[in-house]
Amino acid sequence: MSCILLLGASGMLGSSLAIKLKAAGHDVIRQSRADGYDIKLDLLSNQAWVDCLAKIQPETVVNLAAATNVDQCELNPQWAFDANIAPLLCLRGAFRSIDKLPHIVHISTDQVYDGTGPHSEAHVRPCNSYGLSKLAAELVIKDLPSTIIRTNFFGLSQTQGRQSFSDWIIKSIKSRKQITLFEDVFFSAIHMNTLCEFISLAIDKKTLGTFNVGSSDGMSKSVFGLRLASLLGLGTSSIRIGSVKELDLRARRPLDMRMDTTCFQDKFSVSTPTLSTEINQAADEYLG
Ligand SMILES: NC(=O)c1ccc[n+]([C@@H]2O[C@H](COP(=O)([O-])OP(=O)(O)OC[C@H]3O[C@@H](n4cnc5c(N)ncnc54)[C@H](OP(=O)(O)O)[C@@H]3O)[C@@H](O)[C@H]2O)c1
Fold it and tell me: pTM, whole model, 2 decimals?
């Protein structure tokens, strides 16, 4: 099995993905700035990248490292640049010094879209600094041997201090905290486990390009939350259904992030699941 350099291994997706790739027999080298991981590569140092790639000679670099706080990215675009774009500029620079280029699997976001979905890959229109920085990151590596996965995910987070959208809903209901779920924001997320399977497939198949990887349909965030709560037998009295327009958020959010996954399904010979199937998977996970 192949050697995989996993950037951002301490994050919500990284923690789950590392376990699944190891279980599939890959040699996974986990990068983080935190203690307790395999390598503390400085993602902003050209020389560190050159040394790391020469030493490890990974067959694949999976990039999950990112500044993911959307409002913080809006407040501080330099922070978004340093975390989301600059590491890939350094990686690109390091590629000039090595003979055998690794395959890059880069995780991007459905926030590169705006307007009415489902969106196809060609029609990008980011409406905030986070989406813009993620799109710029894609452009840095687009002509390298790369598979770029635009996605959105949920499920039980294994990472302390990081909660997914589904974690937040369940935790809030259980602690009787009043939350508002938006009836005017639509997405086509998938369960983290399904995403890990699809990333694993991308690593194995090495099909290059940019792909929407989400559920085959989608729904509003309010329908998502109510359906999940119902499957878990949780009361919904603390859930208020509202509009994102009521909130004074620093960063504008796209209202419809639903993605057309046809291209991914065709190129990878897979079917993407419906969002209801993915909610069922999450419910089983939380009940288990
Ligand atoms: N969460 C979602 O619902 C969602 C939706 C769509 C797309 N995505 C994308 O999926 C990927 C993984 O998301 P996630 O939610 O698992 O992320 P996360 O939990 O926020 O973890 C991100 C990782 O990036 C590293 N990181 C953060 N800021 C950094 C910086 N300034 N410089 C270098 N490294 C930095 C952190 O590692 P250390 O601090 O340990 O070094 C952390 O492990 C990201 O690329 C994100 O854009 C996420």
Answer: 0.98
- 63 CA to middle of ligand 1, Å? 9
pLDDT digits (tens, 9 = 90+) for 48-98: 999 999 999 999 999 999 999 999 999 999 999 999 999 999 999 999 999
13: three-class secondary structure by DSSP: helix
**Are the beta carbons of 44 and 92 closer than 8 angstroms?**
no
Number of structural domains found in the chain:
1
User: 140 in helix, strand or coil?
Assistant: helix
Strands 239-242 and 179-182 come out as parallel
1 pLDDT more than 80: no
- Structural domain contains residue 227: no
Taking the CA of residue 9 as reference, the ligand 1 atom at the shortest distance is 43
Q: How far apart are CA 98 and CA 47, in angstroms?
A: 12
10 Cα nearest atom in ligand 1 = 43
Which residues form the domain of 103? 3-159+190-216+257-273
Q: Which of 242, 248, 28, 251 lies closest to 126 in space, CA to CA?
A: 251
Percentage above 70 pLDDT, the chain:
100
Amino acid at 104: I
Ligand 1 neighbourhood includes 149 CB (under 6 angstroms) = no
In a domain, residue 243? The reply is no
Identify whether 55 is part of a domain.
Answer: yes
On whether residue 116 sits in a domain, the answer given is yes
SS3 135: helix
CATH code of the domain containing 263: 3.40.50.720
What are the tens digits of pLDDT across the range 85-98? 999 999 999 999 99
**Does the annotation count 130 as an active-site position?**
yes
